[in-house]
Amino acid sequence: MKRQDNGTPRYGFTTWQQTCLITSTLIGVGVLTLPRTSSSRLLEAGWMAPLVGSLGAYISIWMIAKLSRRFPGMTFVEYSPLVWASKESPKLGKLLSIPWIFVYLSFIYVATGMVSRIFGEVVVTSVLLNTPLEVIMITMFLLAFFLSLHDVDVVARVNEILFPLIIFPVLFIAIASFQKADWSYLFPLIRVSGKSIFEGAYEAVYSFSGFEIMLIFYAFTQHNSGKEKAGFVGILMTMVVYTLIVVAGITVFGYEELQRLTWPTLELVKTTQVPGLILERLESAFLAVWVAAVFTTVANAYYAVIYGLRQCFNKGMVFQRIASAFLFIPLFFIALIPQNIVEIFQISSYIGIGNLVLNLGVPTIYWIVLFLRGKAGIPKERKADG
Amino acid sequence: MDKRWSYLCLLLLCLSFLAGCWDRRELEERASVLAIAIDAGGEDEERYRVTVQIPIPIKIAGSSGQGGGGNSNAVKVMSVTGRTITDATNNLQLRLNQRLFLGHTRVVAISEEIAREGIEDILDGFRREALIRRLLWPIIVKGKASSLLEIKPQLAQIPVVFIMDLVENGRKMGTIPDKTLGDYLNETSNKSMQPFLNYVEATKREVKWIGTAIFHDHKMVGSLTPIQTWSLMQLRNQKRGGDVIMPLAGQEDAYVTLRPRFVDTNLTIQPNKFKGGGLEAVFSCEVQGDIMEYVPGNIRFASPEKFIEAMQKELKQEMEKRARQMIQKLQKHNSDVLKLGLHLRSYHFHDYWVHHDWNKAFKDFPIRVEYTIKLRRLGMEMEQ
């Protein structure tokens, strides 16, 4: 396989940048609906959903990180052919790896469309009541497009700088709303069966999708950086934030009322009074900051898709720029497919489950294949056991 | 060449600072509704009569030179009927030159008549409307709800502001419960408790807080007097409630006044000792307070210690009596606003909640109240 002509040497993401990348990608539109979805089955014990729902993500990110250790400096697109066939038959490798790459990229692509749609729905229903949904979505696409014009290192730096802007408002809302909390709402601790804890956790899984972009971005990490550590810490931070938000939602509203709220976290912001009353209407400020959270989700995923495509076709920066401009058109129409809010939530729930299957399934298959072909050894490191 | 391009970019960048909102609306260009009052319509199909209060910005003192003057002219009160609340607001829009804006609504007054029929239908629209704040105050009005918007309080330019201050101040002093729309919605959704709302009465000039209205399944079923509401607040929210003015036993025109400072309530569920079997709820409420007034005319105690001891005993009995009356009323109306059901569901789920239908069980659930009065000070006076 011909090495593509990058021109510049590959940039090395630090561990912290990887962590930021993962956390800010994970925290997106899911946080607005999470208290409702996670308490729909689990009732008072809804806060367990992010804890249980993240289990799959930990395992998956660990496998993805190990894959990247096995093929250092390579993206998923680059190492797939090496997994499926030996170096001597690149054609076969490419042929065999295309379905996987295609499934992954198109999945991330569609998921990105749904994220931007949900973002548009929130903005249209709560703050900009007269603005067409399409305009909001296109603005978000333009932002993502702008990021796609740049190199990978820009993505890392943007995520690093937006990270506090994403995590602190959500933490602040969760903690500030505890002053209205009634802790009795959290009890009885366990009333549902163990089986439905896992069923209920399904609902939270959607909020943990998005870290699969690391299939691409791990390639740009510094060699001695802790990829696994970054993955774990990134998901752990997300999990903590999510759990806090769900606890806040349940203790303020009670699980019955949560089921009736379309955007529980937004309502949480609305009912939270900040001491001092600097801002009486916090939700506009919160949504303004939350745009950053959605932006990192949409733009990172979109960038990963574009970069994957670029590598598929062995093209350079120009291709990336042109492709990112044109790929928004189908994305726009994909995002407009769901006809109403109920359909949106249904689809995003399916995406969540599909994502879990994909993220757990594909790395597992890859490791099994590597193992069977006797190539599972990680260069100058301990043996991986898949 | 490069320089020219960068100048152009800079120019374009400057343009972005000059841009405004393309669909902006000035403050004067919208009719901000401060309060909504909902009455029964009367006419055949038109179920509701909706009255709104809209401030007139130019007449509010301070906003322009003319200010002051007859203060109640600073608002316009309009009334309209409709089949639903949204229908009525749409009908109202037909009579207005500016767009109605509900984002600033702070008070929703609902007449007792409507409340007794049930307010679920009314609140559905409020639930869906994104502009409505969950922090606004629904208030039940004795008589016509629109009378609340027509008062002329004189102490505030806008009547609604007067009502808001009244509630807000009471909330700060711990005498009026802070019941927002959000609280109401949470409590009606919750299957283990019932909501209550503030209950007021309006005369031509004034408005008066007369306790709380208690609900069962969205329907108002009864009301608590202010004294009963204070007992409720002490047991439910650990709020201090108002002063306790107790007539002294065996004397005429003799009263003692307790001002509660701190209230600490513990709810324990324990096996019923008296009636055998089952559980009983015991509210142990500790009130710390001061004596603010003591007008017995002639009787003086031998020593301050004796006085405090005797007062604590009498006040305890009085407070327990009040709480008992309040609980009897709640049980009569089958409205668990005490959050007792929530406590049972949370901490006695497997041994009680799953076997009982709280809707029926609350009526006969044994509840005891035990007050502990701790008199801390006697005011500025040392002699009893």
From TrEMBL, chain A:
Keywords: Germination, Membrane, Transmembrane, Transmembrane helix, Transport. It holds the Pfam family Spore_permease. It is found in: Membrane. It is a multi-pass membrane protein. The chain crosses the membrane at residues 12-34, 46-65, 95-115, 127-149, 161-181, 201-220, 232-255, 285-306, 318-337, 349-372. The keyword Iron does not apply. One of its GO terms (biological process) is spore germination. InterPro entries: Spore_GerAB (IPR004761). It comes from the Bacteria. One of its GO terms (cellular component) is membrane. Belongs to the amino acid-polyamine-organocation (APC) superfamily. Spore germination protein (SGP) (TC 2.A.3.9) family. PANTHER family: SPORE GERMINATION PROTEIN A2. This is Spore gernimation protein. It comes from Brevibacillus panacihumi. The lineage of its organism: Bacteria, Bacillati, Bacillota, Bacilli, Bacillales.
